Automatic annotation (TrEMBL):
<dbReference type="Pfam" id="PF08240">
    <property type="entry name" value="ADH_N"/>
</dbReference>
<dbReference type="GO" id="GO:0046294">
    <property type="term" value="P:formaldehyde catabolic process"/>
</dbReference>
<comment type="subunit">
    <text>Homodimer.</text>
</comment>
<dbReference type="InterPro" id="IPR013154">
    <property type="entry name" value="ADH-like_N"/>
</dbReference>
<keyword id="KW-0520">NAD</keyword>
<dbReference type="InterPro" id="IPR036291">
    <property type="entry name" value="NAD(P)-bd_dom_sf"/>
</dbReference>
<protein>
    <recommendedName>
        <fullName>Alcohol dehydrogenase-like 7</fullName>
    </recommendedName>
</protein>
<dbReference type="GO" id="GO:0005829">
    <property type="term" value="C:cytosol"/>
</dbReference>
<dbReference type="InterPro" id="IPR002328">
    <property type="entry name" value="ADH_Zn_CS"/>
</dbReference>
<dbReference type="GO" id="GO:0008270">
    <property type="term" value="F:zinc ion binding"/>
</dbReference>
<keyword id="KW-0479">Metal-binding</keyword>
<dbReference type="InterPro" id="IPR013149">
    <property type="entry name" value="ADH-like_C"/>
</dbReference>
<dbReference type="Pfam" id="PF00107">
    <property type="entry name" value="ADH_zinc_N"/>
</dbReference>
<feature type="domain" description="Alcohol dehydrogenase-like C-terminal">
    <location>
        <begin position="213"/>
        <end position="345"/>
    </location>
</feature>
<keyword id="KW-0560">Oxidoreductase</keyword>
<feature type="domain" description="Alcohol dehydrogenase-like N-terminal">
    <location>
        <begin position="44"/>
        <end position="172"/>
    </location>
</feature>
<dbReference type="InterPro" id="IPR011032">
    <property type="entry name" value="GroES-like_sf"/>
</dbReference>
């Protein structure tokens, strides 16, 4: 490690030329280019990315033609790396630290960050921005001086990136890089939604709408909590066999019940509704179906999926008052990055949280477009992209 730190320190304070996968047009293959990564400014660190994984949100931003889609851009927000250098006013991070960048800011100082009740930092409110967190500028340019946009304060599809300290969490170096990167977004979001937002109880019944990466992470979290029945709802029947590895006990194909609402099917299966219902697709209609099949009196509906901007949910006032159900959002699983991620890491190191089954593919950086193809075609849960492999 000492030799590595000595090597890293030679580049401190200087621009770094490296490779990045640049998205230049909506939906078109990324282009591997030489880019220049500026040194970190105050309260920033520059990270050497070791590996990154592809999240469905990256595909969403890649396809968007209108804002918050913008080009040219360096996508990517699930990653593991080593701190290459630090800017001024950085106290808790140093060169050589093992870290994961996380899109959700955690300043550790504001009312929300110091409370156990919230992970929604009020000093740095989360937003979808094309810039770095504090000063609204970019740390990326091409060799010709063209500015490149950031993505979710991370931009991990580059060999080096600059990230604000509010978006960086230290991680135990015992976790392999191709597993550590999973804690950056999807797995943490799903597992956290079950463990922290919902606080799933042992012996309870859970319904999960959408068995993609996040939905399966919810299943994993529910399994850890001891749920006795985990019902997966999806249109792809192949997801049931996959879901069994994560604790899914029952499967409902929503396309096979056109004669009745899916909520009615679930209510009949569960004798009146499930204890916890998770919407992991990002569709308002499914949120309402989830709410309709969570049990009256104590049922919780947890919204995890990201719907299109401006989407509106509609509920009857009578149902809200008389049914006593709860509906709640779960951004990043309700987790506080700097304090809760180490707890998930401990569960992994104790072999309680099983990460291996989430990684279905691994590719080299030059094959990053293959990772997009695999995810778009529904063949991959998480594809890990190695920078130097």
């Amino acid at each position: 490690m000492a030799a590595t730190q000595a090597k890293l320190s030679k580049t401190a304070g200087k621009p770094i030329h490296c490779r990045a996968a640049v998205a230049r047009k909506a939906g078109e293959p990324l282009v591997i280019e030489e880019v220049i990564v500026a040194p970190p400014k105050s309260c920033e660190v520059r990270i050497k990315i070791i590996c990154t994984s592809l999240c469905h949100s990256d595909v969403t931003f890649w396809k968007l033609k209108d804002f918050p889609g913008c080009f040219p851009r360096i996508l990517g927000h699930e990653a593991f790396g080593i701190v290459e250098s630090v800017g001024e006013n950085v106290q808790d991070l140093k060169e050589g630290d093992s870290v994961i960048p996380i899109f959700l800011p955690d300043c550790t100082e504001c009312l929300d960050c110091t409370s156990k009740k919230s992970n929604n930092c009020s000093k740095f409110q989360f937003k979808v921005s094309p810039w770095i967190l504090r000063d609204g500028t970019s740390r990326f340019t091409t060799v010709d001086g063209e500015t490149l946009y950031h993505c979710l304060f991370v931009s991990s599809f580059a060999e080096y990136t600059v990230v604000d300290i509010a978006n960086v969490t230290k991680i135990d170096p015992r976790v392999p890089p191709n597993r550590a990167c999973l804690f950056s977004c999807g797995v943490s979001t799903g597992v956290g939604a079950a463990l922290k937002t919902a606080n799933v109880e042992q012996g309870s019944t859970v319904v999960i709408f959408g068995l993609g990466g996040i939905g399966l992470a919810v299943a994993e979290g529910s399994r850890i909590c001891g749920a006795s029945r985990i019902i997966g709802v999806d249109i792809n029947t192949d997801k049931f066999e996959i879901g069994k590895q994560f604790g899914v006990t029952d499967f409902v194909n929503s396309n096979s019940h056109e004669d009745k609402p899916i909520s009615q099917v679930i209510n009949e299966m569960t004798n009146g509704g499930a204890d916890y219902c998770f919407e992991c697709v990002g569709m308002g209609t499914l949120v309402q179906e989830a709410y309709a099949c969570c049990r009256k009196g104590w049922g919780k509906t947890i919204v995890v999926g990201v719907d299109k901007p401006g989407a509106i949910l509609t509920f009857k006032s009578f149902d809200i008052l008389h049914m006593g159900k709860t509906i709640m959002g779960s951004l990043f699983g309700g987790l506080k990055p700097k304090s809760d991620i180490p707890l998930l890491v401990k569960r992994y190191l104790d072999k309680e949280l099983e990460l291996d089954k989430f990684v279905t593919h691994e590719v080299s950086f030059q094959d990053i477009n293959k990772a997009f193809d695999l995810l778009v075609e529904g063949k991959s849960l998480r594809c890990v992209i190695w920078m130097d492999k």
